[in-house]
Write a structure and sequence with these properties.
Number of helices: 14
Helix content: over 70%
Order of helices and strands: HHHHHHHHHHHHHH
Oligomer: single chain
Number of strands: 0
Shape: globular
Structural class: mainly alpha
Length: 356
């Protein structure tokens, strides 16, 4: 039974990806280009060269963490949409702290930066966690609203009190040299990726081998039954929301210290690392290993897209099209899982057509 479930999860993850690439291939062919050549460039430049592979791992690091931040709550049917907010707040607070701290050695400086990122990520998740646990307020609505409120607050802080004087665009001061991660060779890869691997292993043990991991699964399947069996569901909701916020804030701190080095209004990108984490978690079926693989795959798309229009006549926006198709197909798949709408539709078609 367990092997069947694993096989089903793999199939559910692969089908949207394969269909998205097939549709993307037709679009590339319509543009007069060879889809196989385009996809080969995408894979070769992101996986089959030393620099490309290292850059892929670099971009995957924060997405592994935001994917895990989503997975740990979604697995329990807690829809924390505030991962993006925790990520951005963690990065902002890390930037402010790291640009002002002096007199500490590099290891202590980085450790304090990660603690600050995780703590502020947790604080952002605390309000919706308490509202969900104590008053059953819909966490999806609260976290979505808080995300937009946070954007405006950080925009004010970045353009006012914490803006770097003399800069030609809105940003905070550059973080100190001691807080920066050093890149390996001519790649963008830093030690932050290996820290991410340690966090991934710890989360795998927590979700798959610990008591809390089994409780997460139980709450996700039936929270009322879990409560009746003596599980303190309210307490677990708060713990999971705070854990999710800590992971996202930790990711924001790491991304700041290994890639951005200062907070800008485009720090998280578009649509944002937190939203990317949601797609990665869905693609990985909320499993730690699935999240890891999905983050690498998604990073391949990001890294490879920079090379597509250099070696082919296909615009790099084709990758955004493929990503959008994956999101659309995953949404259909998720909707069908909850409502069985496709099975009902096909059943009606068979009945009307007289097919047995």
């Amino acid at each position: 039974m367990k092997n069947n479930n694993i096989g089903k999860d793999i199939a559910n993850s692969l089908i949207p990806v394969i269909l998205a690439f097939i549709i993307g291939g037709f679009i590339i062919a319509f543009l007069g280009e060879n889809p196989f050549t385009t996809y080969w460039v995408l894979i070769k430049k992101s996986l089959l060269t030393t620099k490309g592979f290292a850059n892929t791992l670099h971009y995957a690091a924060p997405m592994i963490l935001t994917g895990l931040a989503i997975a740990v709550t979604f697995k329990a049917n807690i829809f924390n949409m505030g991962v993006e907010g925790s990520f951005v707040l963690g990065g902002f607070c890390t930037a402010v702290f790291a640009s002002r701290i002096t007199g500490l050695d590099p290891i202590t400086t980085k450790l304090l930066c990660f603690v600050i990122g995780a703590v502020f990520g947790m604080l952002f998740s605390l309000i919706p966690a308490l509202l969900k646990a104590n008053f059953k307020v819909d966490e999806m609505v609260v976290t979505l609203m808080l995300n937009y409120a946070l954007v405006k607050i950080l925009e004010f802080l970045a353009t006012g009190p914490f803006r770097e004087q003399g800069a030609g665009y809105v940003c905070t001061a550059t973080v100190s040299r001691n807080s920066m991660f050093t890149r390996f060779g001519n790649t963008r890869l830093t030690f932050f990726f290996f820290i991410t691997l340690v966090v991934f292993i710890l989360m795998y043990i927590l979700m798959k081998k610990s008591k809390l991991g089994y409780e997460i699964t139980a709450i996700g399947q039936n929270s009322s039954f879990s409560e009746a069996c003596g599980m303190r569901v309210k307490k677990k909701i708060i713990i999971l929301m705070l854990l999710s916020g800590a992971l996202a804030g930790f990711a924001g701190a790491g991304y700041m210290l290994s890639d951005q080095y200062k907070y800008t209004l485009s720090f998280s990108g578009n649509p944002g690392m937190g939203w990317d984490g949601m797609l990665i978690s869905l693609l990985g079926s909320h499993s730690p290993v699935g999240v890891f693989i999905a983050a690498i795959f998604y990073s391949v798309l990001k890294t490879g897209s920079d090379n597509i229009n250099l070696y082919t006549a296909v615009p790099q926006e084709i990758v955004a099209v493929i990503q959008s198709l994956i999101i659309l197909l995953l949404s259909i798949q998720y909707l069908n899982k909850k409502t069985h709408i496709l099975e009902n539709l096909f059943s009606r078609i068979r009945n009307k057509g007289g097919i047995k």
